[in-house]
Amino acid sequence: MRLAKYLAHAGVASRRAAEEIVRAGRVTVGGEVVTDPARDVDDGSGVAVDGRPLHGPEPRVVYALNKPRGVVSTAKDTHGRRTVVDLVPAKGGARLYPVGRLDADATGLLLLTNDGDLANRLTHPRHEVPRTYRVKVRSRGPVPERALRALREGVELDDGPTAPARVRQVEPGVLELTIHEGRKHQVKRMCEAVGHPVVSLTRVRFGPLELGDLRPGAARRLRPAEVAALRAAGGGARGKG
Question: Is 103 a catalytic residue?
């Protein structure tokens, strides 16, 4: 098995993130630093990350978290800030990491897992897994129809035009917006582009999974049927959560 894939299956990170960990020189095989993510390894190769030995795949788990404002979407933070992983105390020793990101000032549904294949499927652009956000924008009244139409048709950003979004105004100045791309700060930049900067943003749905009544800061382990639905949304039906 390729080294990056082995790390993903062991719950270290998603496949793409695992490749960067290897290239950064943080992985040893048999006591020697390896920087080639394609290196063939197995359970007997003596793989370690940051000096911590790996012992094969962990049982795969997926958690849903209602991320509160001010918490960062990373497994570790070099500045000592609270992370989303800190909010999942009953993870049974699994090395969790977030599936995608929410900005520190954003709130709502975030998935955490040690299943690198699932994380990759849910975040890779080709699978077009939709995410829905409840967005309060700066507006003195209802957002004009011309701005909503622009969001629905796609807006021009500095890194190219966006794909069409699904948008409805749930109350004056509050939009429900669904996208399937994963560009950095995309929703904020889209709303800014049509003249209505974001005041607050909450993710309420990721693929088939809804935030529901999960309270801010709380996390729950997903049921097997929910994991299967996520996997199907990402274009695959193998594996169990």
Answer: yes
